[in-house]
Amino acid sequence: PTGNLKGARDRQKLVIGAMVDAGLLTKGQAAAVRPAVLKVSRTKELPNGTYFADWVLPQARDRAGEVATEQTVQTTLEVAVQQAAERAVKNAGLRKSQIALVAMHPDGRVIAMVGGKSYSESPFNRATQARRQPGSTFKLFVYLAALRAGMTPDSVVDDSPVTIGDWSPANSDGRYAGRISLRQAFAKSSNVVAARLTQRLGVAQVTKAARDLGISTPIGGDASIGLGTATVSLLELTSAYAAVANGSYPVRPNGLSDDEAASDWLARRLGGPTRIGSRQLDQLRELLSTVVESGTGRGAALPIPTFGKTGTTQDNRDALFIGYAGDIVAGVWLGNDDNSPNPGLSGSGLPARIWRDFMIRALDLRLPPPEPTTEPDNFAIDLNDVVNGVGAFIEGSGIDTQVLRPGEDEEPLGPDEEVPPDDRFVDRPRGFDRRDERR
Prior knowledge:
Beta-lactamase; two-stranded antiparallel ribbon
């Protein structure tokens, strides 16, 4: 009736006439029927969790079975967390790029879901329906396979150019550190190390690690899978990270808070969950925390222990950050529906910042006040250096200062670190080749 009120009333007359013909109503009873008074109001604001409602409805129908009576279904959606997700998306300042965000508790209870910038413009749920390349977020499974094979975060690996068959993977920044620890390789998201590990451990072992943590989509059969060339939904990928937070696998995302559906109950009785080995779990969490503390995920750092991984696919078509803190596991994806490139977009930039903004609100965190800064009594700045963007020197202090351009990070960077680009300007062209990028 909200779309075609006249058609609805014509249909009402048709049904009443059919009931008279069938003897279910007398002509007098039919004449007494009055059209319902409908007051239709329109608004651009849709109820919270609309994408979530579309996703959870089939679960509710399956649980109801053939029962025709009215039922009340309690979902796992948490209104405050959903509002935090929507606000983080709204504040992101996105241009043409689309977005998806999903959050759950470590046991798989989904508590927030955003499937796009606007449900009214596009009800397609990019958190559950889209299958995109995960980029370097897939390296979680490569490193889990390495830990299972007996390696540790301190094991030495080779971060130098490599050719595997006719494939020559490259690090996204074009820099190579030589012999480094497994921890450092994961933090800097080395592509060549991931490729070497996949080749050394075997595709089957990496695939098994992914399957164990819940990845069900086709993965592929060569070493390139270590760089995230398979396609997967954000919901499934976030569930895999939830297994690390939960300490057991697989974690099945669930939208209903009542007792488990019969199929889920039987599946759990027959196969799982399985605990992750304590040594491997501690080491995997150590790797994920290092990413946020000193690696590509610094933009997602929170004032509480934070674990996560960045991901960027070829030509910057997809950018992700997936991680957890407190009792919330969340994943953020950015990209274009037509899979076109996004110059300047990377998982270390806008996705990490959106994830952080969401988690601060969802966990109701109180950020510490900024530390007071003091200036030396005697200082002089070379204006020519400022104009040229080279830097300035504080005379008599021995401190070098940096003149920052728009989009640069204000934190001092280490020798193996790079400045995440400002992804609010994703249309801005870049002067370097980002092919084969996986961060």
